[in-house]
Amino acid sequence: MKKIIFLFLLFSINILVNALNVFVDENRFLDENGNTILEINYQCKYTELLFVKEEKGFVAKFGIEFSITKNDSLIYTDEFTNKIISKTQQLEQTEKTFSDKLSLTLSKSDFNFKIIFYDLNSKNKSEWTHKFDLLPQNSILSDLEFSKNITDATKNSVFDRNKNNFEVNPNHIFDINHDFFYLYFESYLPSAEKKITIKKNDIIIYETFAKITKKEQIEKIDVSKFTEGYYQIFISLSDGKNYGFREDYFSLKKKREQIVRTFASFADEFLLISYFTKSSNRKNWNTLTNDGKGHFIQRFWHNLDLDPTTKNNEFLEKIKLRIADTNLKFSSHKKGWKTDRGRIFIKYGTPDDVSKMDTGLYTKYTQKDFEIWKYRNEHFLTYIFIDFMMNGNFTMIYADGDDFEVTDPKWQKYLGKDFDTGLLD
């Protein structure tokens, strides 16, 4: 977390929708001097970031640039980069997210604040810019901060709330099967009556009252009986003389349960799934009933769904398009998606570089065509495929950087003693 102290700023919130999908939320609190503490929470799924192979593993670089201006004049600027390191290539296919926050202390207005979020590897970026209203010094209630979960606070956690690690959810969207979520807010009265009201379509569906005497408030909201949809939440505090009120929103969505299949044949579907798993237990697979196999397939593709709240499984849709491409490009005596080149294409897409060559004269084998595939952006991978039978069916003999694939020990003999290994760099 970067903490910046300024005593002269005013900002407001805007929705961020751009190439790099980053969720942002801002919340205001008062310090002991009545200044506004502005906390900007931001979150980006690993599926949005490009992981590139480096010495320490697969690395994504999530950059932040922020600036403060007044009347088009630059007042302050800074930038920093967060490195996310994975030992495998699968982190970018998970539901995990990178979360952080910016914290500023504000006391005056008429300054603009802009954040640019960018992926240094893919060059994708998004911009978030606007003005913020100060929280008045006589406020008795802060803004509302939403969380999916609370865990024990780690040392120096930027999400520490009352000695809890408050896992902030900037988009305010919650899985309907998760029966609750949390709110954090602050009361600036010694004691007060608290009222929480939740409405859907302007109809009150939840209301609770309680007396509070503490500044820091963590409220567990039970939504186990709520239906899917958009909700308004209202919180008010009063001590009989003073009154404070905040309004916010949240949404409940469920993962779209649908038939997720690519092939009618269970055997074909399992073969495709095996492309994305380091080892597939065929013995266990063969003991499953058809219903069991169907459930296994459903769970597998749901776990790779880039956004479970949408109707379609975006990851699987991308794979289906790649399968269609492989059938057009690589089919010979069998479907293109079942070939070695097809398997790699399905997993990683179009290579960044393809060299088509032949083995030349200095090999004891008959001259063969071969191809070198290189991936150098999202992954650092190199493959060699050779057409042993000269019938268009290329077999993989070399793989570098891919723990899922195996190199043939005789690969150099197949290519001949004059093969330039520098071509693999």
Low-confidence spans: pLDDT under 50, at least 5 residues?
1-18
Principal-axis shape: elongated
Radius of gyration from the alpha-carbon trace, in angstroms = 27 Å
What's the total count of β strands? 23
Describe the biggest sheet?
5 strands, antiparallel
Helical content stands at: 10-25%
Measured by DSSP, the beta-strand proportion falls in 35-45%
String of helices and strands: EEEEEEEEEEEEEEEEEEEHHHHHEEEEH
User: What average pLDDT do the residues reach?
Assistant: 85
Essential attributes:
6 helices, 425 residues, five-stranded antiparallel beta sheet, elongated, 23 strands, Immunoglobulin-like
Spell out the blueprint of helices and strands.
Elements: E1 2-5, E2 22-30, E3 36-45, E4 52-54, E5 57-70, E6 73-86, E7 97-106, E8 112-119, E9 125-130, E10 145-152, E11 160-161, E12 164-168, E13 173-175, E14 180-186, E15 192-200, E16 203-212, E17 216-222, E18 229-238, E19 243-253, H1 266-274, H2 282-287, H3 290-303, H4 314-329, H5 340-348, E20 353-358, E21 369-375, E22 381-386, E23 395-400, H6 411-415
Parallel strand pairs: 1-7, 13-19
Antiparallel strand pairs: 2-3, 3-7, 4-5, 5-6, 5-8, 8-9, 10-12, 10-14, 11-12, 14-17, 15-16, 15-18, 18-19, 20-21, 21-22, 22-23
Short description:
The protein is mostly beta strands and about 425 residues long. The protein folds into three domains: about 1-135, Immunoglobulin-like (Sandwich), CATH 2.60.40.10; about 165-255, Immunoglobulin-like (Sandwich); about 265-425, no CATH class. The chain is about 15% helix and about 40% strand.
